[in-house]
Design a protein that fits this description.
By secondary structure, this protein is mainly α. 76% of the residues lie in helices and 0% in strands.
Length: 483
């Protein structure tokens, strides 16, 4: 009798079958869990790298091609949390649609898949125009609320931040459309096609950034215009590509409609996510206000460091998305043990990747910060962030993987719960207290303090096992075909 124990990826009942169809949609309910998760993650990782270059391009270019570079970088970095606040509703809506799509695709309920796509697109197009108008109107008030230095007149940080944010709002539909396209395909197991959309958008954005800022001297308005053009092109290209490659999904802006049963489930999934994203973005605005009180150099250093920090999490974000889809499909088929196995394997790989990237970031942080801005004070503030935050990031990685499983199973209240505890109740107050009793760079330690509480809360909820009894499969829509 052999004493060998089967490797986790080779357990009985997981023999290879038809895991990927001819068009690239992946059935994660069969085959090796880790193989699926890694293969699904790789295109997402590459896409996240491009996304970060996309986000970094604005800061790098204004930091190297504008005279008032500290103020320009501060304006761009300050504008991002404001945009994030406004799109929080759509982020929650997209997550609800992705969860529904993954579970119903796992259960092979394709009619529910098609009607979910039509429903989410109808809502996005209906809300995007009023949201854009609202954003343009309230931008100056938000900038004042954040304590951005300067006035609304002249070429200071305040004026540039208002210009940047308002232009981004004008092109908001392109960003929302791209993310909805990506969420649809990821829910169905296709992580490669969204990468195509992102590469196209990134290349266009970088080229136009250089032309508008370095050649035309349009400043922060130039980088904002480049961004919305690139996002709009990516969205439209994405619609064309999906219609061509996946005609069975019936994606069409001329054939829209809302399915009431799907809308009901989507809202139950989306509202907690939307509230969570909103609370997170509101907390981020309070953190940004505290950062803004440190002046332009501190604002620029903090913003540049957080962009580098984002690179540390690139593999983690990819594994998070892959594990969410993996969980959704397998929960749709009732394979709880397989979900737990995927969780353990993904957590181990994520922590290993973090250890390598975090070490390199700490060792070469100063050189990386220098790419954005050569001012020594700005670099020093950025290094304070890196030394205070990066070594403790394993805490949020554990939390992310726990939340991925529960979110994929439909337990969307867990992210809301952990956000309230770790961010709103702990991190934000801790940041203000640390700044009050020590100095402004000590606010960065509020991150690991909040992560520890969030991770603990997520682990407790996971251990209860309630997520194992959730199902979102829609087998009978109870509607006429025309709905």
């Amino acid at each position: 009798m052999s004493n060998e124990v089967p490797a986790p990826d080779d357990l009985p009942g997981q023999a290879e079958s038809k895991e990927t169809d001819r068009k690239g949609l992946t059935d994660m309910t069969v085959g090796r869990p880790l193989g699926h998760i890694v293969r699904f993650s790789i295109p997402l990782l590459i896409g996240n790298v491009f996304q970060q270059f996309y986000n970094m391009a604005d800061s790098i270019i204004v930091g190297n091609f504008m005279e008032n570079r500290d103020a320009a970088q501060a304006a761009v970095n300050t504008g991002m949390p404001v945009i994030f606040l406004i799109v929080a509703l759509f982020a929650g809506l997209g997550m609800g649609a992705t969860i529904l799509l993954s579970q119903n695709y796992g259960a092979k309920q394709m009619d529910a898949v098609r009607k979910t796509i039509r429903t989410v697109y109808t809502l996005v197009l209906s809300i995007s125009v009023p949201l854009t108008i609202l954003g343009i109107v309230i931008t100056p008030s938000l900038m004042r609320l954040l304590g951005v230095p300067g006035s609304e007149l002249g070429d200071g940080t305040m004026d540039m931040a208002i210009t940047y944010v308002r232009i981004i709002f004008i092109g908001l539909i392109g960003s929302l459309g791209y993310n909805i396209n990506a969420g649809i395909l990821q829910g169905l197991g296709d992580s490669k096609t969204p990468l195509r959309f992102l590469i196209v958008s990134t290349v266009i954005n970088v080229i136009l950034d250089l032309v508008f800022v370095a050649v035309f001297n349009w400043g922060v308005a130039g980088v904002a215009i480049a961004t919305i053009i690139a996002q709009a092109f990516s969205w439209i290209y994405g619609i064309w590509y999906i219609r061509k490659k996946y005609p069975e999904l019936e994606l069409s802006l001329l054939r829209l409609g809302v399915s009431r049963p799907i809308l009901s489930k989507m809202l139950r999934l989306s509202l907690p996510s939307a509230i969570q994203q909103s609370l997170f973005s509101i907390g981020t605005l309070f953190m940004q206000r505290l950062v803004n009180e440190g002046g332009e150099s501190f604002m620029a250093g903090f913003g540049n460091a957080t962009r580098i920090d984002a690179f540390v999490f690139l593999p983690i974000f990819s594994f998070f998305a892959a594990l969410t889809t993996f969980t959704g499909q397998n929960m749709g088929k009732g394979q709880v043990a397989r979900v737990k196995q995927g969780f353990r394997l993904t957590l181990a790989v994520s922590l290993g990747a973090y250890a390598v990237i975090a070490t390199l970031t700490i060792l070469f942080g100063r050189a990386l910060l220098g790419m954005f801005n050569q001012t020594e004070t700005v670099i020093e503030y950025g290094m304070n962030y890196i030394y205070s935050v990066i070594p403790f990031s394993f805490l949020i990685i554990i939390q992310f993987m726990l939340v991925a499983v529960m979110r994929g199973s439909g337990q969307v209240m867990v992210p809301l719960f952990t956000t309230i505890i770790g961010f709103i109740l702990i991190r934000v107050p801790a940041a203000y207290l640390l700044t009050e009793y020590f100095d402004k760079t000590k606010m960065f330690y509020s991150y690991p303090i909040g992560w520890m509480l969030s991770m603990t809360a997520a682990a407790v909820v996971y251990a209860t096992g309630r997520w194992q009894r959730k199902s979102l499969v829609i087998r009978d829509l109870g509607e006429s075909p025309a709905t």
